[in-house]
């Protein structure tokens, strides 16, 4: 494989060595006899980037020549993770770089660890965008990603010595970013505030404040293809032309200060994916990156002389959640106020360009902006939104005369105090397709979020079950298992064609394969055991079951239920006789994840976990049977390290609340089993790998409303004595102070237990008992993991992206063919 690359930059070890040393001398200006690991990383990254630039330029030129339809993936978040290893594997030159660095006295692995993890996202939504970029490139789809180049990414999490979360700003650019190209020539003005004038022909938006968006481009290599895509992130800088009236004349210093303020717009990622804060700066960020993007897209389209009414034949724009939805109004504004299109033509084209992905049904996360704020910040957009709504409601009235309730439900404007713009409704009205991210979730999008819209246009609503890239999450993160898979399949083509892994199933009874799967697992567990030793000073055995729950801390994800069950396990062990201890399966419980800085309950949960960890790990009675660790600063890099070490992972959200989950897929692909609820993609994973290979428990989505009411109105109270004991210990402040225990316990009272922790608890404990029992039979366990790995093909993001390409974007794969 990879012969497509051989005609370009030389790829033998000595040429690569020369390229690296060249960058040490001329890019970093160091002498070749004196450079450290960080310099080695920088020089290596630049040399890899050189290769990517060549293929990147060729690819973009090729797309332009062929005049292909492109998709633009608009996302406020791209959680890319480290670039170097991913680029080397996709280019198929890892071993050569290893060799070259070795000759220079460096270890590639160590050099790769010098790279900062660019954390320009919160969690699932941002990481999905990154997996999609990898698949788009690999499938040779003509695509670009567009987003914001935040100066401060997701905060770094630390834990105080008392066990509380502390947030440290993530200035990730301290050592520069060799993967980006600053394009000072690619820039657009973006306006805020100001007023609207009519000049007799069309509306004009004037005055206010103008900032300049500058493009930063990063190449996105595909696996085993020459095609290289682009991720364009915008950074805000002061506008060059200045408005003499906008700052007080004669006051030079405040004039400079008002310019400096421009840069605030792209300075920090909002580290909260739980509740919509309604902050003005956040809406500014949205309009800033969307406006720059649409100007860029329209300019590219207009290079060829043709009417803008045909934009949708060459452009598809995917809205990653409602965050870029202001783009619907912005494109209308560009069409009408800059390009002199009439409303009907502008609207017809706009709605053929946009499509919208919903990522959550949680009402508190649905974006709504106050009409006052939109009117002040984006006055022309507010006018346009009103007009979109007027025409939209006119249709509704025609069909349902006199149905005021329906009108209220379907309106883009929520009539309240204050009046709000519902961004999700705007996205549905302005898009040709709307999709959810797993089957159950797409069902809820239709039945709960937009039932009136679904009734009118059922074909508008689609399901696109999420996926993850096997390149990063298997090949790169888990070389030990990947090597086993490739050897048994006698090919490594499964890396870009996961379905080939079905071929593993025929060997499931082979003792050799079982042993090799277990050896790979042990390798991965050993690495994590070493990390634990280093960070906590605790020795753990790789024979213990590694039980992992890592994800953002949210009440609906129920980390609290996990820690309560750990307390019960601890209490049970304390009561065991020596003979019973002999039978007990040792567990290492790992929990990790960040709590939004203002999410008080989530932070209490972290404090409780740390308290339990301290008590359990220091109890001599427990020994090796139970160890509990809170892994700090969970991010893509940490995920790559620990996911391959999982025996079991937990995906235990209240049914109906986790739209999809994507780490569930990664954990199974890495040879672990799932304990989980019938929620999100768990349901489809079960469909693929079989009920015997999963530990399912808990209420079903259709049972939730009723159970919640029963709890609330006294129709149900749990009687689990284990849970009662655990709650009593918390109440007695055995694990944390009452600042933490009181609010947590209050949330577990029947009338407050919105997430049904107490209701699902017994069922969860039963499932945990089944996990322990099954783990005792190591042969049957490893067979389950082999079968599961073999059957996960559906969850490659390559499959997901093909579905988007065929059903929503109408795209064609365009592999680069060198012109002779
Ligand atoms: C919402 C908000 C609202 C407040 C301001 C900042 C902010 C940032 C992000 C979000 C989006 C939350 C939605 C989300 O992340 N959904 C997750 O999407 C994953 C990919 O589809 C999916 O696997 C997870 O189940 C879902 O929770």
From TrEMBL:
GO cellular component: cytoplasm
UniProt xrefs under Pfam families: Phosphorylase
Keyword vocabulary terms for this entry: Allosteric enzyme, Carbohydrate metabolism, Glycogen metabolism, Glycosyltransferase, Pyridoxal phosphate, Transferase
PANTHER family linked: GLYCOGEN PHOSPHORYLASE, GLYCOGEN PHOSPHORYLASE, LIVER FORM
EC main group: transferase
EC code: 2.4.1.1
Designated name of the protein: Alpha-1,4 glucan phosphorylase
Cofactor annotation: pyridoxal 5'-phosphate
Record GO biological process: glycogen catabolic process
Role: Allosteric enzyme that catalyzes the rate-limiting step in glycogen catabolism, the phosphorolytic cleavage of glycogen to produce glucose-1-phosphate, and plays a central role in maintaining cellular and organismal glucose homeostasis.
N6-(pyridoxal phosphate)lysine modified-residue sites: 666
InterPro entries: Glycg_phsphrylas, Glyco_trans_35, Pyridoxal_P_attach_site
MF GO annotations: glycogen phosphorylase activity; pyridoxal phosphate binding
Reactions that this protein is recorded to catalyse: [(1->4)-alpha-D-glucosyl](n) + phosphate = [(1->4)-alpha-D-glucosyl](n-1) + alpha-D-glucose 1-phosphate
Membership in a protein family: Belongs to the glycogen phosphorylase family.
